[in-house]
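Data deposition worksheet. Section B asks for the primary sequence of the deposited chain exactly as it was used as input, without tags or linkers unless they were present during the calculation. Section C holds the resulting structure in token form. Section D is free text for depositor observations; keep each observation to a single sentence. Incomplete worksheets are returned to the depositor.
Section A, Depositor: J.P.
Section B:
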Amino acid sequence: MVDVCEANLPYHASKVAAGLVNPLIGPKLNPPTDLDECLTEINNFTNYFQQICGVQFYEPIPLFRVFKTQKQSDLWKKRSITYPDLCVQQKILDQKEAAHHHINAPYGVGVTNCTRLHISSFLAYSEHLLKEADHWITGLNAYEEKNYDKIIFCEGFRVMYNPWFSNIPIAPVRGEILGVDSSLDTSVSNGTWAIPIADNHFLAGSTWDHKVIEAGPSAEGKAQILKALDFISVDTKKVSKQFSGVRTGTLDRNPILGCHQENKKFYIFNGFGSRGSTTIPLYAKQMVEYVLNCTPLPTRVDMTRFNKLNHLAQ
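Section C:
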């Protein structure tokens, strides 16, 4: 039997995240580690839920990547040759062509094959499914009322308050996004992104705040996003929503999976940062195999990689 316990605490990143799966990330446009395996598991995830509920939670979308420099444009040309399946086309849209899509891009635009997870829909469906099966528990520490053989903590940044795992070096970061009541031709990003989610509404973000963690939306965050969206036209009067959530990053930018060294009943599944929509289907599969079959975890995500670090700190 497997139950899910939801504490309903504020600042969940998953509840406000855009769910973008971008195969060419960062200023250097590098594909993330294990991308092929991640995409395979995303496809398996999509097929599974398509069969059981007829809904496709992951949606393929083109992403117009706006280059900030000529160097980025040149890098994209190389990436489009090395990873042709990740790009809609090798051709770069010049400034005039980008303008047809209402995008200001002096150094051009590359169009990548992306995917978006409709996170809110998936979370709502999962909750409904688990409640129907009587496997959903609500309340902080509600799991303590039952004698479970194994407990997997998926607490996000609040793992730093968990006495069993508080020594793990996480790097939480608060992010904000905006909801704008305007139409948008296509999903577009130059590091800051904007994604249409309805005919007359799009989301845009995000910010990175490592200092003020447990806080809601701020005027500074709104101003920062709007300033960064200089590649599209945004009517500031049509900003209708603002959200804030905390990503759980890690010092080495890899997730944290594994079992507590002393109490073998407790496990951790955490540290996905801003890449959860891309990586969680793969790492969830690995976690299940680890818990049920004792299949070793990849070294770079196994929490035992911090043992030496913790020993030095003592």
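Section D:
The chain has a mean pLDDT of 92.
The longest strand covers residues 239-250.
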